[in-house]
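Sample A.
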Amino acid sequence: MSKTTSKMLTGFKYVYLIAFFALLSGFFHPLITNTSFDSVVIGVIVLFVGLAGGLLLYKSAISEKRRMIFLGGGFALISISLFYIFQITGRI
């Protein structure tokens, strides 16, 4: 596989993730209700923090040297994401 094809696939992967997270965080709601997109941007950021935590947990499963660092960091990021979700919904 050539370098340009590999870079295009990597770029497409990240564009796909951003589009999926934007749709998941309610992209069409501000269009329908004619409000601002602030909640969509915050939702996408919260989802990316949770994704980063999940990736660190995965890295902790396959790494032997830095397992505890990845495990702690992954759970910390997932906890931060969960805290932001509770804060946005007004439960805290």
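Sample B.
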Amino acid sequence: MNPASLAAQLLASRDHLNRITAGLDGARLLGPKLAIVNPPLWELGHVAYFQEYWCLRRGARGAMPDSIVPGADALYDSAKVAHDTRWDLPLPDLAATRSYQDAVLERTLARLEREPDNLDLHYFAQLASFHEDMHAEAFHYTRQTLAYEDPFTGDEIAPATGATATGDADIHGGTFLLGASRGGDFVFDNEKWAHEVEIRPFRIARTPVTNARFLEFVDSGGYERREWWDDEGWAWRSREALTGPRYWLRRDGAAMQRRFARTVPLAPDEPVVHVSWHEARAYCRHAGRRLPTEVEWEYAAALDPDAGTKRKYPWGPEDPGAARANLEGTAPVSVDDCPEGDSASGCRQMIGNVWEWTETTFGPYPGFTPDPYKEYSQPWFGTHKVLRGGSFATTRRLIRNTWRNFYTPDRGDVFAGFRTCAQD
């Protein structure tokens, strides 16, 4: 990517973040102390710190210079500042934090212009942009967690609706190159590198599980019946005292859901969202189905059987427009929407709408070597589950078929749903 394109991407990431964090002031700058969110004021400063560290300080000649903000290393280094201490730090106020963001971005853009052939800088500028995009999505689901207003109310774009996609896609097995290939666009270390895997034939649902289907599980006593849950999942459900997905409720007998600050009717044809891996697996047992492995998911999303090659996106190499994928949007849409985004296998919405849990525990690919940002992947191997595909809150520039997300199996606050596979 050339310096002008990188500069445009950095500016787009900042504009996106600013829109999602607009209105976070006063008591909302810290908010309640929860394990699943960061204090927004800290997170805004951390985004600036990350860009400053990798794009300005680390690459400077000689000794690493000090941050623009005195003592920033003790405030914003996420690898060293424990999560539960972030509410008690002497953080700069909002105006100073926004000024810090602006100053770092201005200096990064100036350096890109000044050093157009610095490929090391190009790499870290992309890293900083994608890091900011990921935090923008985290702010998005934080707003949902804390019942703040939807940052994009009024921006709704109706995607194209196609014929109902029902049933399973029959996927022939074979040899498949899992992961990202060398020599392409920027990829993260956990996607490296493409390697051969053997896949048995399988059948995967053409769409994610809908609210209507999941409601049948809930109404059948799915959260009370022990046989649908493994030991860890049942212990989690019991601790959380859940009787359904965390933002569902009943009003005069009608199924409703909280969407940011509003309570709205449960849309039967939208994918179920805000369910944990434990809930997804319990539903699968109830339905006599299973979660796909991440190998199966990528195979169904990426393989072009006619060409014998992999696609960057399910539909091909073209960028994800609104007709192909619900990205950078306001909320989930019907599972029948975005037919132009169907994969060659006939699966819909494998990119966008909701993240999809897989059966797979997050781990390294063969020959894994951490990239310079060593804390991104390696610390989470073995403890997290892999999700694929992005959500309505994911940016278009971030996502692709090989992109791996990862959360602990108890997390239902993120914009995650799932699709199922037939039992072998």
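B remarks: The two ends are 44 Å apart (CA to CA). The CA atoms of residues 39 and 142 lie 10 Å apart.
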